[in-house]
Amino acid sequence: MSYKNRALKLNAFARFAGPVEIDSISPETVRRFLDGDRPVTAEWFNKFSALKMFFRFALSRGYATRNPLPLSQPKSPRQFRPYIYSMEEVQKMIRVVDNRYRGNWHLEPYTIRTLILLLYGTGLRIGEAIRLQHQDVGLNDAILTVRETKFYKTRLVPVSSDLTGVLRGYFERKWKGSGSSTATPFLATYDGRPVTHLTAELAFKRIRYEAGVKRTDTGLKTDTYNAAISRAVSALLAADSVNKERLAGDGLAEQLTDSVMRLIEREWTLLGSDERAGEALKKLRTAYEVVTAELTPYHHPEYGTATYKGEPEEMNLHASMRKDTFPPNVTYALVLRYANGKVEGVDEFLQSADKYEKLALSVPWLNKYIDDNPRVAFSNLVRSQPVVGRQSDASIHGGHEASWTGRPDRAGEDATS
Question: Rounded to 5 degrees, what are φ and ψ at 343?
């Protein structure tokens, strides 16, 4: 769930609870807001997640002395399960592409064919496949280099001889003699542009429909969490282990779910940002690994005021980035204005970013503190220069504001927005 969605949930709760002090909010009020007048759906858990973060923050800052959230939660609705296509179903879709695919689409039939076989033959996620560049496709050694994975690491994927032949045929038909660079997307639209996630999904849905391929299961998975397993894990932990007591109860499922959902949210938010701010992110990726990115009017309080009285709402690109040369717990948190379909200030940031890094990482006491506290996440916050006439406490360099922030309350996580 994005920051904007969490803000919407908290605004709804504020209207529901009325103008009251935080400590006067009763568990009954919270429960009525969560339950509403409908059966339990994913929305219940979205609201619970937003309130859990809110009250955790309020307690840590001394704004509240108790947490009114319910101690128990209803059973989560069964979740969607990915469907694995059979060889026969894949062959049906390939025949549709080869023989009956028509229409004014951005993707040529042989590109769709290659994408389907690539996904089926390697198990790549669709976002990983369309982000492959020429330098990532090793046709001679039959190895794919997958970057910016779901878990933000690079991995190598071996490719069968048959699939290597398919990829080689695609390269010769699409790119041979074109003068493409190593950073050019391997899979591309008819005019050589990167394939977006939305374009690939729409094309795949059409192919699947024309092939008459439908999932044969219910689309739902059975419950796999067992409280007895959680207690067994707890019993194996040392007496002073973190979360030992929580795991002894029914907390393991919640811990795992929260962790997985955070990763899923990051990945999908990043894919959505690529659709609308792809050019800006492409430039940023020439110098950084983009860990998270989101287009939103929301401003975290640490980033400054979102809008000023009488001014229209401003859309911004929030991006968290890092380099291999950074200490493991250090990231850039970048905020740039998004207007008229474009992100402003990317070139200016890239031109001056190097001196920010060198300046900040040359401070002896900061370097020592970062080394001594590897689980405290630090972020160099950089945002677009304020409009002339506004006052700012932060120093301004090269058209951007920059400051360093340590986040002990989020140890082990990137200190992004």
Answer: -90, 130
Report the SS3 class of residue 222: coil
State how beta strands 137-138 and 143-146 pair.
antiparallel
3-class SS of residue 275: helix
Q: What six digits make up the tokens of 200?
A: 């690939």
Range of the domain at 73: 1-77
Q: Where are the alpha helices (DSSP H) in 216-345?
A: 227-236, 244-248, 251-285
pLDDT at 336: 87
SS3 (DSSP) at 24: helix
Task: Give CA separation, 191 vs 106, 178, 181, 205, 285, in Å.
Answer: 8, 12, 15, 22, 22
User: 């001594």: which residue's tokens?
Assistant: 372
What are the pLDDT digits (tens) for 1-30?
Answer: 566 778 888 988 999 988 999 999 999 999
Q: What angle do CA 191, 196, 202 make, to 5 degrees?
A: 100
**C-alpha separations of 266 from 127, 151, 184, 335, 369 in Å:** 13, 10, 25, 17, 28
- Same domain as 317, residue 392: yes
The pLDDT tens digits for 149-195 are 655 678 888 999 989 999 999 999 888 877 778 888 999 987 788 88
338: region left, alpha or beta (phi > 0 left; psi from -120 to 50 alpha): beta
Same domain, 285 and 416: yes
Largest Cα span, the chain? 71
CA separation for the pair 144, 279 (Å, rounded): 24
Taking the CA atoms of 89, 91, 93 and 95 in sequence, report the sign of the dihedral they define.
negative
The closest alpha carbon to 40, from 4, 2, 77, belongs to 77
Judged on CB neighbours under 10 Å (0-12, 13-18, 19+), 233 is middle
Q: How many CA atoms lie within 13 A of 116 on its CB side?
A: 27
Output the domain CATH number for residue 41.
1.10.150
